[in-house]
Amino acid sequence: MMAASLLRRDKKSTAAHLKADLKRTDNSSGLRQLQELLDSVLNPERGSDPESLEWCKWLLAGGEGFDEFCRTVRSYDNATLCGLVWTANFVAYRCRTCGISPCMSLCAECFNNGDHTGHDFNMFRSQAGGACDCGDGNVMRESGFCSRHRLKTGENVQLVPRDLLLMSEMVLPRFIITIIQYLRDGYTEPESAADRDLQKVLQQLDPHISFLEELTKMGGAMRTVLTKILTNQQTFKELSMGQEENVYAKKNYEKYLSALKSSGLVSVEERGTGGAAAGATESPGGALSLLGATAAAVLEDSSKEEDQDGLQGVGQRKRVKLSSSTKDPSIMDTLKHKCFLEELLFWTIKYEFPQKMVTFLLNMLPDQDYKITFTKTFVQHYAFIMKTLMKSHESDTMSNRIVHISVQLFSNEELARHVTEECQLLDIMVTVLLYMMESCLIKSELQDEENNRHVVVNCGEALLKNNTYWPLVSDFINILSHQSVAKRFLEDHSLLLLWMSFVSFFQGMNLNKRELNEHVEFESQTYYAAFAAELEACAQPMWGLLTHCKVKETHEYTKTVVRYCLETLQMWFDAIGFVDEPALNQLTFHLPLHRYYAMFLSKGVKCQGLDLDSLLPDQEMLMKIMVHPLQIQASLSEIHSNMWVRNGLQIKGQAMTYVQSHFCNSMIDPDIYLLQVCASRLDPDYFISSVFERFKVVDLLTMASQHQNAVLDSEQERPMLEGALTFLVLLCSLRIHLGMSDDEILRAEMVSQLCMNDRTHSSLLDLIPENPNPKSGVVPGSCSFEEMLSAVADFKAPVFEPGGSMQQGMYTPKAEVWEKEFDPIMVILRTVYRRDVQSAMDRYAAFLKQSGMHTGNPWPPYKERTPLHPSYKGLVRLLHCKTLHIVIFTLLYKIWMDHQNMSEHVLCMVLYLIELGLDNQVQEDKVEEEPCIEEHCHDSWFPGTSLLSNLHHVINFVRVRVPETAPEVERKRERERERETPPSTSSESSTYGQNLREAQVFSLVAERRRKFQEIINRSNHEASQAARPKSSSTRWLPPGSPPQLVTEILEIRESMLSLLVKLHQKLSAKQNSLSLSWLAEVDPAKHSHGDGITAIERILAKAATRSRHSKRCLQDICGKVNPPIPPKKNSPGDKKSMDKEERRQRARERQQKLLAEFASRQKSFMETAMDVESPESDAVMDVGSSELLDSEVLYDCVICGQSGPSTDDRPTGLVVLLQASSVLGHRCRSDTPKRLPTTDEEQIYPEDTCGATHDVRLSIMQRYFKDSSCLQSVSIGWDGGVYVQTCGHTLHIDCHKSYMESLRVRDQQLF
């Protein structure tokens, strides 16, 4: 009755009356009246009523106008933080110079009112929303505060009068519980609720939440009142359950309890059924046994599922449960709430973060007490947030709003450290990440598909494709940016082990299997998800941890991470069943465990002064570690050689992404560095042999003119050989992790990008890898991006084009950069498209031509390298091992002899390796200045390992295995016939026997196996050779029977120096290209830019200046090739005319060679096109199969992209267009030229055309015979002619059939 009378009165007077009663000492009457009034006004059963909001406003104001009340409260604002909250697409600022946290942001007003002159800042459009950090000293430096928040405004503000906010303290608790009850009542579980039902509830509540948001904008005084109400446990306990007689409140409370049951990370049902299994997998090893436990659980689960359902296949999705020993029960249990704030956040999560609610919760953050309590509440609900996110249908929107909140909480280091210590934030995050990834684990098929016990994430799952894990990973990266939190993480060994287990889920994911027969029907795009997952979930946290391992005091952290990386890698090798050989035709670009190990290794040596050998495993483990990164490098060449063409375009997309600027420093750079470490510690002969074997070019490295390659087609050999040599040059040249400073790395990256193309400032900033080089000058002692850019590039101002549009300003390399710093090796490493390498070379050629240094087509210049860090001096041994020298000698010989598949690029890389070897001598080896006495080397080609000594060593005879049809066999038969005719003397036979003994034999495969066995026996003396599976079981074998090979002895009598001299003559097309006088004036510095001739001259000059013996050998070689000629006086005119005539002669020879080659191809094409069978052709085929193979025409299939001859098993067709045409009907019998008709009587088609004759014949026949008989006799007639055209493309008949079938299936699906 009292409430009814109050409702009938005026709101203003009622509010004033109640406020006056509550201010009295005995305010029990006022309290009773207010409670009865609020029971009526804020009745949740009445729904959202605008009248109730009006009542609340008047009650809060206590009889004054609400606007006047708001102004009064704002005058007591004591907040020192801005805290302005914005949503997505809001334009804000970020100043890297002022920011302590990388997530710092400022609103436009605070940025403009602060002093950021000369700072590194950017303006951005917010993706997920944010809040202004101005005034927060934990997030940004005070020097960046605006003029308003730089002042300690709280010190000058008067105390708030007690009665000003008295009504607010009484009314707002009831207002908030009304909102909570309405949220309870409106919620139903997602299985039974539609999105529009939840939206309807939120729409009706919108005015109430907007009112709360309006209250937060009144300033610090009102936020303090709200904080007390939201965090008061007693008030929540009194109001939450409702009164006994209130049925509506009790029903809602039961709904709330029901909703709480599913709030745990593992539900009650899952906990009940999974308890026994969890206990079974529990082991004393704890977190260390997690990897093996998960794999075992997968296999156990899969066997049960396969028994129950025959359709369950290997590799299909299987759920894995972690052991209970690895998870904290407090993380797994259901939630319990103690205050309004906790339940409000709970319903905010349940309703999937409505924007109004998020804004209200964020607007309260300037109150420090609220911020601490809210952060703890957020961490308490963290697992529940991620569980809800995984089930959400609007995960993108929800993700943005989660990050909108979390970034404000975790950017503050003090707060992040506080909740890490008190609320186990790190444990919660790692556990929740593991839980999320468990939902999409599948059995790995890498290496041993049948017995593989490793599990990886399935990149086709929505969790990975939609980046649902992004908010959690973003928060994890954010808190690891704080040194105190990262230090706690690195000190907690159980957490580190859990994290390594998490990383292992990505090891070997998105496995590619090379298609050998059919083109893949559907090109999967899962590689986007795979690369994004490794970068965000593995690499970014790694970079965050590495930033805290830069000083010697933290070296123990590095040692711990390295140790756990090795342990996890060993478990991974055991789980996949790896011994020493990678599986055939498999490729994964994802090896995060290798990259973690590599980067912590690099940081420990470079920044902390750790001994590299103390961080490395034994030789056997090193050999295992190098296999998969090396396989990736070989597969890159395979992809560019079109060996993976049947896998579609997506495999090229993976290869390009692997080296792309946003991924390269987290993928290819660690891989190359890890291979450099392995190469510096393993036997160099073993490493070189492994490289050429992985690149599948072992069969090509023979001095015979012909060879049989069991695994590569002829057109694939050259790009694979070029890839192997380029990789070796990269391996020996790159110093990114082997001695270069951060400033040097930034400069090299910038130069390589500018040399490819002129760049705008923004594109160049985007192309430079972010880690480990910060692009701003925040890090003390580092050179800023702008300073470096001005040092290496000139700016070309924007210009207007003729059409009126403006071309952007570009940066172009300075002239001295082209002359001294252009590094083609760095360009090759950083190019996504092969055309960029050619673009850089074209620009380099244009510079040389313009500056007058060189007018022809230059070769890639040789660049001096940064000195190696002492820990990696062993890498130089690669350049000074006999295996590489044999390969170099063989390739020089093959190029000189014009063997097939030898290219200019092969010679360029061989010369580069020689020059690297000359510039990087092994210190412990003393160069022999006196000629050594040659002995007959039966097992070794060269007497030592020094390249400088081996350059002049002469190889006399080489034993090779060749096909029976090779020219070497023919020459041997001719020699035998010559011996049979005249009786051979004893001296001849003894010479031949001596040659046979002296002939060098070499097999890369045999050498690698021998070295491997030596290392195994050295590391484990008790290991039996018979116990280890032989690598030959997984060797590449040719299809069908092996080719018939015979052994022949080649007479070589050359050294590397003599071959270089002969190649110089060949390139220069001059017999006397190198004279003795040239050797007397040799100077390597004169030959820095030029072509292949210049490169050889530079190498010979370096060899001559660094070894007197090499200089004498060069003099002997030049003297034998070009005996001294008496000087002859020639006039300059005679010399000029001779050079001109010589150039003409060379041009004529090249022209004749091209014409002969063209005629040969034309003839072979005609022979293949003519379908003539005769006994003679069969006889020819039987006699000389090799000659027929040479004349076979290769056709390119436009569907599968492969090249090959047309065979009976797989015929090739020509693409033609057939069109109906009546042109034949217009032929005339007479040769009289036709005239255009000028009158109606004249006709353009006279009576003597073929069509008219045909019509007359048909009409006569129809007079005497039946129509059916007549039509059969004339076939289709003149108007049914066929016109045939072709574009010249060819395709396989079976490919065409598959393509047409796919079109038919697609049409059926569409209609």
Automatic annotation (TrEMBL):
GO terms for biological process: protein ubiquitination; ubiquitin-dependent protein catabolic process via the N-end rule pathway. This is E3 ubiquitin-protein ligase. Residues 968-981, 1131-1150 have a biased composition (Basic and acidic residues). Residues 982-991 have a biased composition (Low complexity). Ubiquitin ligase protein which is a component of the N-end rule pathway. Recognizes and binds to proteins bearing specific N-terminal residues that are destabilizing according to the N-end rule, leading to their ubiquitination and subsequent degradation. InterPro entries: UBR1-like, UBR1-like_WH, Znf_UBR. Residues 80-151 form the UBR-type domain. It catalyses: S-ubiquitinyl-[E2 ubiquitin-conjugating enzyme]-L-cysteine + [acceptor protein]-L-lysine = [E2 ubiquitin-conjugating enzyme]-L-cysteine + N(6)-ubiquitinyl-[acceptor protein]-L-lysine. Pathway: Protein modification; protein ubiquitination. It holds the Pfam family WHD_UBR1. GO terms for cellular component: cytoplasm; ubiquitin ligase complex. Gene3D superfamilies: 2.10.110.30.
